[in-house]
Every structure is written in structure tokens, then in C-alpha cells.
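Morning!

This is the sequence you dropped in the shared folder:
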Amino acid sequence: MNPEPNPNYEYQVGGTLPSDSPTYVTRQADDDLYKKLKAGEFCYVLNSRQMGKSSLRVRTMQRLQEEGIACAEIDITAIGTQDVTPDQWYAGVIDSLVRSLKLNDNFDLGNWWKAQKLLPPLRRLGKFLEEEMLTSIHKKIVIFVDEIDSVLSLSFSTEDFFALIRSCHNQRADKPEYKRLTFCLLGVATPSDLIQDKQRTPFNIGQAIELKGFDLVEAEPLAKGLVGKVSNPQEKLKEVLEWTGGQPFLTQKLCQFILDDEQRLSVEELVRSRIIQNWQSQDDPEHLRTIRDRIFSNKQPADLLLELYEQVLRKGEIEEDNSPEQIELRLSGLVVKQNGKLRVYNRIYEFVFDNNWVNQALANLRPYAKELAAWLESNRQKKSYLLQGQKLRQAQAWAEHKQLLVEDYQFLYASQELVTRKQQRLVLVLAPIILISVLGFSYWYSQKKPSVVNQNPQPTETITVQPVSVLLSEGERTLFGGSENPSRSQAFKAFQEKRYTDAVNYFKRARQAFPFDPELQIYYNNARAYQKGNPLTLAVVLPDTNKEADISKELLRGVAQVQDIFNSSSEVNQRFLNIVIANDGSSQTQAHKVAGELIKNQNILGVIGHYTSPNSAAALPQYESAGIAMISPGSTSTSLNSRVFFRTVLSTEVNAGKLADYAKNQGYKRVVIFYNPDDTYSKNVKEQFEKLFKDNNEKFVRTIDLANASLDTSAEILKINEQDKADAIVLFPNTELTSVALAIASAEGSKKLPLLGGNALYNQKTLKSGGEAFEGLVIAVDWFAEEENSKEFAEKARTRWGGQISWRTAAAYDATQAFIKAISMSNNPTRQTVLQKLPSVDLSANETSGHRLKFDKKGDRQQKPILVKVVRGRGGPFESGFIFQQVKDEDINN
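The structure's back. C-alpha cells below.
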């Protein structure tokens, strides 16, 4: 029989816990502080907010008072910091001592203060301590000064106040009565904050008390509140601590959520729905916003703290060096020191304050914010707002290694272009003069120059080529930066040494720290596959895993999801699936080399990839010569033709046809197309659309080169409206030129015309950075999460990977499923049998990401595209106010 829950049990979320609170968690700091203060040592507890400092003070005061020690509390915030004079503030300090120590009967503060009016405020406080307090109380006294960081908001310096506290310690040698007086300082500050004057001795006394988060043993009292509510309170509390890292405020809050939860959600579901999602509006009582505000409102420049935090986030941990920036970051609460390393405090912070948040925060700190705002306000037309000279160089230096918004890159690019054009004009003016001078000098030099024979050739430059082997991994290394943890490092070593049982255990631990990392998930399953023996092997080739990390991980999620399902069921010959991950660096040369390396591994039965059409074209000859099938989850160009080539995305011909039909149904007669003639995808989709649009007897007007550095977007829009009389603008940028497409959509006059676009614009950046400019943009796409057939898969994938997923995940999932099906159609699968079986693969919608998968004779997927439109709505990225919405066939002509 399950015990009944205690209806009166309630966790306290925020604020100071009473000394008898059942949810008070005793930590090592409790004993350390109590023993040190009892022994007469000065102490300070300096840590981030909501770590339980004030609750620790209350509990310690009670224990000391039970030992017969007098305790006083000075709460700096209660005295006030706004419009307070030094006289009022020091009088407030004395008043706090009088009330805490119950000296009111024998001491009249008002009369005493007036009698000391010839003395400065600090001297009056010193006199009170020695002549009034120490003479009235003959036992040990501990004075707790709480919220000391509040003094930094005063309009006058309080360094003398802390110098006085240090003086009380120093006077013990000459005045024995001071041995009975001890101070404890608590707050969000460092000792160096308290006395900053370089001409004075810093605040360098006392014992630092380290206040850590709860561990499982310490937090045991919190499990009592879950008795009767959940079947295993201890296990549930362990899950809570895995998310909060023992952070006191969040731990109490999450426990209270469990207590109040009537739906019996898992801890992860509660964290995501009640804390992480829409965190700024749900942050009540305030905690996450407090951390954010601390980053932007302290003495260290926020961009330095953000860049430091980004390093911790990316690498998993960095060496602790006690620098001012590291100390400030620790005081924010975002990171914690463990074993000489700085790490993100907990998983909740990792999800809330992730890379996207860092990038957005850095963008908001632009040193050129005013100029950018004015330039955008002028619809990107007024060149007077662009940067030049030293300002431009400083801005470029600041932007280096940062991931900024599209408008930042547009602004900096436009500024650089302006400078370049000025330099070019200068060259045109000076060129004739320089040419004449050079010719004259050359003639003179040829007459004077002595004959030289047998000259030694200059040594050629040595170029270091990265070995192809480091671009591949089954579990020996990561192909991504960041997210380091000890378990993963141990797993890599064990995998390299073929200690697969150890590798499985280490990868399993690493996954617990980073459960949504698809690379770790794949390596874990690879280790299991080798542990079992005789695995089936596929390869997946990613684009640049540094510059295109997000895209690469989106692709890996689909592969990892299939592998996990397959290895959990082990249906084919009791063999597990092993995945070789490769990085083609978004380079055709590297793609060719990677393909050459993959075909050497005879165990690889097929290749999922490459992502881009140019890289697929570069790699195809290698795969064709080896007779190994490749299924691309991203290459759409119709120029890709080979007996070994298949794709799970729709070709440019199919998507362009859908877009052309839409244009016809909307009555568009004349269109202007922007595209990049030097990019395979962009050129191909333009050609297909142009052909199909003309086949509909509509009038195609003209094309414009997006890559033209001298492109004047405003002038082109004016021409499109007034001369071309176009009915719509069609945007077919490649990925690198989406920012130029945004500039066109943002130009004055463009909103008069409907926008059509290629699927390079089908991403979160379009909504985040484009927003209003792209409102109404219609794109033909392969897969849409909200489309009826895709909803079930999308929901499962969201749950598995902790948030929104993209069409890339769906396409990679389907590609892996196609290979699994082809493999299962043979008792002894080989490259040849897989290639032979793929054309006959026929997967139902239940076996894919939502749509039936069958290839035609060219290896193309047989499926109809979906139209989506950018509209206003809730739930978009970064609260952009825009989302993609499906355009249904019945709505096209409405």
C-alpha cells in the first residue's frame, strides 16, 4: 500500500527559509561556517544569487545562539541604497545592530547620534562597536552582513566600512575585547569588490566558505515531500538533480512542480514545459532573468563574459584561472567551478542560455548599433550610415568569430563594399600615372640590370594538408567542436583501443550529460554494434561540421533515430547497425577525397549523403566506380544522374514545377528571378522554373545575378515595379546568398509584389532574421512538420531530440530507412545486393517521416511537394512573430 502524500508539505521557491523549514537542505557549508564562526574566524560566503546564502545565515545564527553566542544581522538592502546619505546609511547600520542585539533599553540612537555630530559617520560606527556594543555584551558576538553587493549601488564609497571590519580583526592583538567580535559577510561579490582602491590594502582577511549545490545524499529531505505522489521519491529526486545540478532554487521549484502535477508528467516534460519553453514569461519567481540581467549589468563588459561563456558551452569545460571575467561569470550563476574547471552549472541553463541565445545577446551589443539602426531605417539606402576607416576595422574585429544576424553581415558587407569601390575609383584615377611610371622604370632597369645566370630557384611554400582519416569517425573522435566531458574522452580512448564494453559504458555516461547529441547517440550504438560483433555498416557524409554544425546535427538526428530503433530490435541476422560519420567540409575537393577514403572500407554497404549538389557531383564518380549506392538527403540538382545515385529530397524540377503551377494559378504573368549563376543548385532551380513557367505560356521577364557585388537592390526593385511591370519576384539564392535575398525583400517597394522562393530559404533564419520582409513568401518544400502526414513523426522526433526538427532530419531518416530495407532484402547483404535492391524499395508512410518512399528510374523520390508560406503567428524562433504555414490546394485560388 502506497503511503499517503502529506497535504501540508510545500517546497519554498525563493526567499529565505525559516530555521525550522522541513525543506532546508544541510550542506557541508553549514558545518564549515558554524565551526569557523564559533572559533572566532572572520568568514565570507560570496556566491551567485538564490544559492541559499540567507537561509544558511538564518540556520547558522540559530545554532550559534543556542551555544550562547550573540548574533546580529545587518541587511544592506533593508537600509536602502537610493537617495541615502552617508549619515543615514551608517545610522541605519547601527540601528540594525541595536535591534538585533536588543540594546534598545539602554541605548537611545537618536540622542547618541546627535552627541557625536562632530565625528564622521565611520568614526561613529567604530565608537559604537567599541564603547557601546562590546561594553554592553560580554559574550561572543557574530555580526552577519547580508546582501553586501548592494553597497555597490550607493552614491558614495563604502570602502571605509569594510576597512573598519578589517580593523576590528587587526585590533585583536592590542585590545582583547575584539577577540569576542567576529564578522560574516554574505552576498554576490568578491573580496576585491569591497576595497578597490589600489592605494589601500585590499580586503584580504577571513575564510571563504564554499556554497555548493545539493548532492543526492544532502537533498534527501526533499524526497519526503514526494512520498505518496510518485512511486519512487528517491529516483524522482535523482532525476531532478540531474537537471538542476543541485541548484537550490531550481531544485525546490522543480520538486514543487512534481507535487502540483496532476498529469503525472516526467521530470523532463515538466522542465521543458514549465521552465525552458517561453522561459522569460514563465520565470516566476524570477531566476533565469536574474542570471541574464547579471551578465549585462556588471563591471565586466558583457561581450567578454558572453564570449567566455560561449567557450565553456562549446568546449564543455575550461581551465579555471580566477580572472576577473571568470569570477564575474561564476557570480552570475551560469557556470560553476569543479575540480579546477569551469562548467555550465546545469542542463537547464544549457538549454535556456544556449548558443542561439549567446549569438542573439552578442548581436544586441554591437558597437555599431546606432549606425545599423539608422541604415535599416533608411531601407538600407543611405550610405552615410555605413562604416569606414577605423570604425569599420573595429567593427570587423569585434564581429570576428561571432555568429551574428543576417542584417549584421549585410551592414558590414555593404560598408566594406563602399570602401572597396572608393579604392577602385582611386585606382582608376591613378592607374595611368602608375602605368607610365612603371614602364619608364622598367625600361631604365632593363638597361642597367646585369645579366644573371644559374639563379637558385625560390623554395616552394609548404602546405599542410589535413589527413583524410581525421575527417571520418566511428567513435574514435568527435567531428564537432565543444561539449567536452570526461566520459566522452574516456569513451574515445576505449573505442580506439577496441575496448568496446568500456566504450559502451563511457558513451552511455556521456549521453546522460548530453542526451540530445546525435553524434554521441551514434557512437554509443556503434560501440554496441562492435561489442556484439559483425556489424552492418553505413556511412553518412556531413557538410562542414564547424561552419555548418547545425545542419550537420539535423542530418545526424535522422540517422541516429533509425540506428537506435534498428539496434533495439536487431531484426536482420541479429546484427547491429554501425555508422561511419564523415565530414566533406562543404568542399568539392574534400568531398572527392572523403569518397575515396570511404570506398576503401569494404564493410560500408552504402552512403547517406552528400548534402549539397556540388559535393555530390564531385563524389559520385568514386562511388560509381566502386559500385556503392549513395542516397542524398539534400542534393536536388537534376544534373545528378548515375546508376548509384538516389535521393530522399525532391528534385529542383519537381519543386520548381509546383512553384510555377502556383504562380499560374495566382494569375502571375510576368516575373523577375534573382539567382546565382555560379551555384549548381541556384542555377538549376532557376532553369527549371523558367522552363516550366514559360511552358504555361506565361511571360518570363528577366533574371538578375544575386552574386553581383555592384547589385543595387533599390534600383532593381524600382525597375521591376515601373519598367518590368512584374507581378511577382522569385528568389532562388544558394545558402551563402540568403542575406542578399533578404536585402531584396527588405528594399522599399518590394512589398508591393508577391514573393516566391527556393527551398534554400526554408529555414529558421528566414523567420528569425527576415520576419516582416519575407511575410507572404511562398516556398515549395518536401516535408513540413505540421502537415497531416508528418505530424506523428515530427512529434516523436521533437520528444527524442528536445525541440523542433527540420526537413533535413526527416530526409536523413528516410534515407537510412531505405538502406535498412534494401539490406533486409538479402540474407548476406553486400554493396552489390544493396544497390540492386534499392530501386524496388517501397516504404509506407508509417515506415518513413510521413510520406511513402519509392524511387523512380532516375533514383528520384516519387512524391508531391508541399507549399508553405511565411505568415504572422506564435511559436516562431526567438519569438520572431512569424511561422511557416501550409498552403493547401483548396486555398490557392482563394
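Headline: The longest strand covers residues 181-187.

More detail when I'm at my desk.
O.
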